[in-house]
Write a structure and sequence with these properties.
By secondary structure, the protein is mostly helical. Helices cover about 75% and strands about 0% of the residues. Helix 14 packs antiparallel against helix 15 and helix 14 packs across helix 17. The two termini are about 20 Å apart.
Length: about 450
Amino acid sequence: MSAQGTPSAASKPTGTPKGAWTITFLLFLFMLVNFADKIVVGLAGVPIMADLKLTPEQFGLLGSSFFFLFSISAIVVGFIVNKVPTRWVLLALAVVWALAQFPMVGTVSFTTLLICRIVLGAGEGPAFSVAAHAIYKWFPDEKRTLPTAILSQGSAFGVIIAVPALNWIIVNHSWHYAFGALGVIGLIWVCAWLALSKEGPLEDTQTLAATETKIPYIQLLTSRTFLGCVAATFGAYWALSLGLTWFTPFIIKGLGFSQSQAGWISTLPWIFGATIVILTGWISQLMMVRGSTTRVARGVLGSVPLVVGGLILASMPHVQGAGLQLALLVVGTGLCGAIYVVCPPMLGEFTPTSQRGAILAIYGALYTLSGIIAPAVMGTVIQHAGSMLDGYMTGFTINAAIMVGSGLLGLLLLWPNTERARLTGGAPQASALKSAVSPT
């Protein structure tokens, strides 16, 4: 391992320890619960607005409130996991998620709902970055893209699996009980993690902190690849946060589907997105095995779908028919998923291991700022538009422009294969990993 805490190009690839895929599966379930918690407000948006008599702007504020402490929490916890085992940090986060759901089981005011979503967001802010940091203690660099893709797919499956079940509870019982069900599921995961998890054996963060050469944080945070990752993922997360808050209300109020139909339709973007993410992870790892630079196999592969998706989404207001509009929305936003797979491994390429938890957390904290802005912008646009449908279309057009711009910035800035050498003044990373490593 190099002084920077990442494998050198010439070193022999490290094997995958026994138990790595068990931890990956548990963290996949961790992200599944995470995104089920996120989606429930959007899924129950219409009955929540009706019961609490909320305006579109108020509901947009509710969607944004989840992200008020999201970024701050992500940064704080990111520095904590540089010194504290990720096993215990992940356990604490999941307990917060579960407990934040239970107040919604009874009669609640808008203020109570708002506070609970803020607390939940504080607990979920560090989730992906800490989980990725934990997984990277089980896999060497050349084998990280596929586990990262699987981890990312916890989000998609959290929606695919949870939405029909939660929607059944909402339709047949109450939206209040949907929150309670998520609290119980969160506690079940806590028990499983406590029983089965352990820290990864490939990296001892505390030992590395004392021995490896560090790079000043200001250099890491101003590196072009870090900035490119933030910019590219900001646009992707704008689309994701709109999907979490406004997708179900759009297909009910904008396209005329019923709440029962919306439960199944709301899974479509996530099914398509899951396919994109898994394909990206597999293709990226295969490209690296065959000699591509990480600039191409990660940077370009993640950025181009953002541009294409934005152009597809931009065409949505100019076509007729609910089915076609829905298809363009699903495909356009679903293509964003590629960037989530490639950015954490790119940052891991040049960040010293003992600093990686903080860098991944700061990256997550910055790109998720779009989650504060996007739902509120959509709510304001809808409230002041000539018609509700016009408001939605304007909001999606804004989303399209942001996706295209962020994808172009990614293409311009993402050069992870030369970043470490530039930061340390050493030899560039080899352009390919040509050892016989199969994509697993």
